[in-house]
Amino acid sequence: MRRTRSLKAPLLAGSGPLARVPPVAAFALVIAVFTAGVLVRGWLGAGLLGLLAAGVLVLLAATWRVLSPAHRLGRVLVLGVLVAVIVSVL
């Protein structure tokens, strides 16, 4: 029998300020900022995407010790793709 994870359970245990943010709300905000950055283009779009990249970098640094090597690689790849998108909207 396969166990499913609760959608309300935290992805990583913690009690920081993001622990109370619903994952769906965080996902919706990221999608909205990413979409706005891609559609706006230019320096403003790159700035919005840069804000996302900075957030990914901060979260990656904060969770680095508890992530497995495969999860680390995945997050670094996401950061790399985001940087490539930033360069492409300029």
Automatic annotation (TrEMBL):
Organism encoding this protein: Actinokineospora iranica
Keyword vocabulary terms for this entry: Membrane, Transmembrane, Transmembrane helix
Entry protein name: Uncharacterized protein
Transmembrane segments: 21-40, 46-66, 73-89
